[in-house]
Amino acid sequence: NAPENLKEESAEDSAYNTFGWINHIYGKYKNTKPILTPRFIPSCSKHLLEELREVRKAYDLPVQSHLSENPEEIELVQQLFPEAGFYGDCYDRYDLFGNKPGGEFTGPTVMAHCVYSGDAEVKLIKKNGVIVSHCPASNMNLSSGIAPIREYLDQGVKVSLGSDVAGGQTESIFRAMTDAIQVSKMYWRMINKNAKPLTFGEVFYLATAGGGEFFGKVGKFEDGYEFDALVLDDEKLPHPQELPLQQRLERFAYLGGDKVGMEAKYVAGNKVF
Q1: 244 φ, ψ to 5°?
Q2: How confident is the model at residue 35 (pLDDT cuts 50, 70, 90)?
Q3: Reduced 3-state DSSP string for the chain
């Protein structure tokens, strides 16, 4: 289901090249590690999914992909995998969907979008500890829809924020935060009046601890967590009044302060910028 110039020779060839690449880079980088990325179900044959299970088994890799982004995509998946109960079940049948209770894999899974995940899919997402990556800019640009993030949070689903470049037009986590708030307001207004809009505090959590959980002890200023931090300066965004810290941060995010006020960045305690 792809143009000829994007197709690989075979499932075996794809798996062989993946094994070779992982072996080539394994252990070379401190902060960057491989993640298994099936493009999405419509571009993967059943044989390839079987091969990817073996790749994951060999290295206990984390997994990332797309899930339930558009209605037409979901319909195509149902046609290609009629034996599956729903989209996420396709990944789960090949052990590419989080950590099954009692299963052999420990690497986490993150799935972008989840705009149209049904009750059974959400139940499996929660059961397997899959992390939803909410990509509001991409969902708007592609006219996909609005993911029900409030409902996911109320059900205890793990949620993070993403950009889905180039579906999204920016890598700014601050823009993703404000976009998430804005689309949640439209979801409340147009779809579900019981799903109250996200607050700035909530999207700040999604942008830090929510996404950080995928990497381990990341995203919080607490004992035992890695020191990952941004040093921000909002002096170039003057305001006539004294504002409390949270309002300053919210204003910084909405006004694109990361373009002018990013002073330093720390990763695992090391200054990288």
Answers
A1: -65, 165
A2: very high
A3: CCCHHHCCCCHHHHHHHHHHHHHHHCCCCCCCCCCECCCCHHHCCHHHHHHHHHHHHHHCCCEEEEECCCHHHHHHHHHHCCCCCCHHHHHHCCCCCCCCCCCCCCCCEEEEECCCCCHHHHHHHHHHCCEEEECHHHHHHCCCCCCCHHHHHHCCCEEEECCCCCCCCCCCHHHHHHHHHHHHHHHHHHCCCCCCCCCHHHHHHHHHHHHHCCCCCCCCCCCCCCCCEEEECCCCCCCCCCCCHHHHHHHHHHCCHHHCCEEEEEECCEECC
CA 38 and chain centroid, separation = 14
Mean pLDDT of the chain: 95
> Does 100 score more than 90 pLDDT?
no
**Choice among 23-32, 83-92, 124-133, 224-233 with the minimum mean pLDDT:** 23-32
What pLDDT score does 229 carry? 96
Residue among 153, 163, 156 at smallest CA distance from 198: 153
